[in-house]
Amino acid sequence: MNNKNFLLVLLLIQFNNLISMNPKNRNILMANPATGEFVEIDVDDPIPGTDGLRPLHRFTILNQPAGLLLCFMIGANINGRDGDDNTPLMVAAMGKKTECIRVLLENRADGSLYNTIGLRAVDFAQAHEDNSALALFKQHKAYDYPNLGWSKDGSHLEIPITPEQWKSLKPENKERLAVAILNCESKEDLNSTFALRRITTELGIIGDNPKKQ
Hints:
Layout: H1 3-21, E1 27-31, E2 38-42, H2 55-61, H3 65-73, H4 88-94, H5 98-106, H6 121-127, H7 131-139, E3 149-150, E4 157-158, H8 163-168, H9 171-183, H10 190-202, E5 211-212
Antiparallel strand pairs: 1-2, 3-4, 4-5
């Protein structure tokens, strides 16, 4: 039995004991990655020895959907944040953990949240070109998804704004949008593309996708 499976079996036993003794008990045993020692913490508390990782984040990193379900059983906050404001759904998208993404979305994880650098879970999935994850986001309608980004051949940006929407923007927002577009120099420039996507989301720009050279 590998270490991940051993950890899961241990936690399953611990959950069974805790729940059978007290259904309101929110504590869980988690391993401190720095020392290897197990500590008992509230299911929404950071794990010692990590950068603010909660149990849901840790189970996601280990690709253990069963661990996620066990945390839900004792009331874990599905949208809890780590030290960089990443939710478990963001961590799942970063690591291409498709089954964890499915479990989190089925349990109503919020896909509209941003981390400290302005990215959503779906942005990580798109950066990885993870079509399985993107299909799950679309299926669960987990975000307001304007089809914004580079074309497949990298020749142009696809920006969901109509002439009417452009005219309705305040001058300062027109300037913000124009600067963001100019900053996107190539398909590989993910940070600028994400920044542009965030601005269009903030401004509520939704519509056709005229091609901008």
